[in-house]
Model the fold of this input.
Amino acid sequence: MSLIPIRRGAQSGGGRAAEHGAGPAAESERRDAARNRELLLCAAREIVEESGADALTMDRLAQRAGVGKGTVFRRFGSRAGLMMALLSGAEAEFQGRFMFGPPPVGPGAPPLDRLVAVGAARISWVLEFGELARAADASVYNRFDVPPAVLWHRHLEMLLREAGVTADPWLLASFLGAALEPELLLHSVQVHGISPDRLAQTWRELVTRMVGGG
Amino acid sequence: MSLIPIRRGAQSGGGRAAEHGAGPAAESERRDAARNRELLLCAAREIVEESGADALTMDRLAQRAGVGKGTVFRRFGSRAGLMMALLSGAEAEFQGRFMFGPPPVGPGAPPLDRLVAVGAARISWVLEFGELARAADASVYNRFDVPPAVLWHRHLEMLLREAGVTADPWLLASFLGAALEPELLLHSVQVHGISPDRLAQTWRELVTRMVGGG
DNA sequence: AGACTAAACGGACTGCGGTCCGGTTATATT
DNA sequence: AATATAACCGGACCGCAGTCCGTTTAGTCT
Done:
């Protein structure tokens, strides 16, 4: 008998919370597991649509999907992980737009125009998906280190460099990015009634001064 | 008998969470209540000092102070309220500095210098008290509407106006303020090893471009 | 087909923040 | 001093996120 029973795919590297990234599993996944993942994502979307993201509790989700609570955590690691999985489609679409899409958001326009346009696009995106995005903000510690956030930050940094900003573009990108955080934008709109247009207009003002003023 | 038994001081207005503001109660407070408030604040400071803000749970605090859990919530309304009470001293001191203190942080210096200086001061403050401040961020909904945050925002807005910024100073103050949020600053320092000096330097860059570029 | 093993499963359990309500006590009135 | 009452007190209780571990099942190897 073989002492080392070669498993083919198996879950990815570490111990827990495999890859709450996108849709289908990284490699092969046991069929019951795959079925349950779909069941859960589907039920989660239903709950969010019916009652909002705040109403999505892990117990309720498990019950609705007809699985045990442990299964939910096995698949998604945490509530935040589940939210990320729900968001991954929208996030990928947005990334695609600023990386490969048509100008001025995508490549091909002058850097300042791109900064202005991508900010406006981000504002719209946040106003549409911000509730989920807020719920997907994990444990404060990795909130800025999750892949989409890193990509977004790098992109802002790159645009700043291209626009001729030489003074600490990395940190300036962080500062600029902070202005577009869901927390702040949602608060401005929902509590103070600021219009999305005004947000975009002021963003334009901010980045224009940033880039031009140096 | 008097149908309207006149209470003298009584708790402040509404129903719950009296005034977690500063030290002694707004007006007179029953002596046992006052004693318990001091007991609780004292025990809370001890726990934070020993084990950090995250280790401060309401049960543990109640037990340590030798009171019931209900008493803790009666006094401070919520965990966030308790944290605000712990912070109120440091917050008041900081407010005093930028409102009445010596220039360039306080009044008397040119607006741009004040913006630069107050940002640097804020950075130091956040690096010292940020952990508490983060724990004091209440329910996302009123995070920006709590008095110290409002005052801080107004101050930034005023400095922008004085510096000649005419385009939407209110929202620009929000955007600038976002760059100094504890969440972001602590992450920069703790995860990416950015030095406080570099934060202050880049803040200077940001506001200089903001004010000069228009 | 039958046996074997790693993975998936599910629900009881923990610790947390927050609420509630019956019992207790401080203070004003007589 | 006795009484009345409003505020205070405490801990049982709730719903939640997240963990643990005994049980079941899918996929593989003979």
The longest helix of chain B spans residues 111-136. The two ends of chain B are 71 Å apart (CA to CA).
